[in-house]
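I would like you to sit down with the record closing this message with an eye to the fold:
=====
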Amino acid sequence: MRATFFGLELGKRAILAQRAAMDVTSHNIANANTEGYARQRAVLSATDPWCIPSFNAPVTGQQLGTGVEVTKIEHLRDMFIDEKIVREYSSLKEFQAANDLLKEVEAIFNEPNEATVRDMLDKFWAAWEDLSVSPSRAELRTNLVENAQNLAAFFRDVDLRLRRLQGVPDHAYQGSIENQLADAVTQANNLISQIAAVNVEIETAELGQGRANDLRDRRQSLIEELSKLIKVDTDWDSKGHLRLRAGHELLVDHSFAFHLNIVQKEAGLPNTISVEGAYPEMSNKPEVASAVISHTAMQRNLTLGVEQTAQAHQTESFLSFFPVTGPLSDFGVTSGTFVINGRQFYLDAEHTTMAGLAAMLNTANLNVQAQVNEGGKLVLTSTQTGTAHAMTYANGTSNLFTVLNLQTKVAARDAIFTVGGTRYVSAANVVRDAIPGVILELRSPGVAQLDLRPIVLGGKIKGLLQVRDGDLNSLRDKLDEMAWRLVAEVNAVHRQGFGLDGQTGRNFFQPLTSDDVNRPFKDAARNFALMDHIVADVNTIAAAGGTLESPTDRLPSYNGDGDGANAIRIAQIKHQPWFNGGKANFNEFYNAIITEAATKSQTYERQYTYRNDLMVQLDAKRQELSGVSLDEELANLLKFQHAYNAAAKAISTVDAMLDKIINGMI
């Protein structure tokens, strides 16, 4: 038999259920514009019925409903769409960061415009041509110096702005890549800590078999924010706890947070991102070879076999006696010309000592280091390793090398190694092009296993590293190569000419040196400048070519102020193919630099536009399921309100019936 107050219980359950449904609906309306919020829904279910025996069914009885209850607050999310959004955010922010940076690079080069490197070069060559017509005119010499200074200053300025954009680990300019990288890592570490903390809150809130929907929304928003900085993968352990990984490294293991660090292996190599706090060793035998990952996203384990490392060519002189002081003519060297590494030099043996010869070679951008040791021997060492950089030398009209009797002390040698079964020959022991985005350092013969699994596979940090270590380095290297070649070729010709004072053998630009044996042009644009004597006295500009007055002369002589032959030779340098294996002159090489920057910028822009369109589609798809529709929620609110009112009416009716029974039947 049913209880007397059964109807009241039914009504109470209905009121509580409809009230809970209205609360959930109100919560949806309140968060209609909250970013990251996913719509919730109260799931109503009938409570277990009662069985009431009857005359027709004395055993099983008839079932009578006992009302309604809220079984759960459903969270309307599609995990598949959420995972796709997390992944696409990483790609979107990677290409957005790279695109923004390449736009800045294009602005630095300022092409097409009048105030550009190309414009400065054209004016520089034109000044030499003008001087060749009237080499004695002071205003033309002054004009040449001004144009040369403008050219050098522009190279330095472009390089300075590229370096400031790039930044350096110990001096990150505001807005530089290094500065943005440091900020991004700080933001990522903050998000990692927050995610670990929310994991604990979720576990605590769900101990009673409930579901912490709002906390899960917050965690999903934090994960998406983190994915904008660095690509992350999510998985769940056996207890259902969330784990986050960047590459193969854990960032979050439920309540444990593992922070990112910016680390550098050694000076001259790019810094990278590590989870452990120290630079990750990627070789099981670093004494054989090691690797530095700069900007690759490929996951690889490779075997590296080193057959031999590269060596630099070194020679030293062998004479019957070695005068420490005194002119070269004292031990049989004649005046005249000689050639080393393809460069011709004039040698005045009667006025040049061994130390003077070494100084002459060291200031000629030959990629040769010359020194006189304690025993008086001349030691020549190539500043670059490999057989391609072995020194070559020959007598001209001077017998210099016959007398010096140079003997090989260390033979030039290439590095030979295999990676993944492919054999490589490299002139350098630091190899940057065998594996894209990876710098190999070869140290000794042997076999090493390389674990090339980077942590940064996407996100803003990946875009920053890609531009800093890939695109910007490539553009800066080419600009440096162009400046280095300009200095080397102009100086080589200028040293053979004569100034108005009749002197020869002087450089026009300051000679360039590098501390990187594999990149002789390193920092050439940064150090591009005129010689002090050129700036101080325009008469030292060697516009005259000189002449050999008789067949027996070994050195040319200054033949007057009207000689502009050397200026013509310098002006013609612009037409010669110095770059890309003898296929490009200065203008063509510079055009290639600008084209490379523009092409990379357009590529990043296309990728960013495509990813952005994809994100719009994914967000629209998610909004279909998880977004709050105010019209729908208001309709639900009215529906639950009517049900609530009806339940209240049912309680009133039962109350009236009970009042009749209790008070009206006495």
Residues 191 and 445 are 45 Å apart (CA to CA).
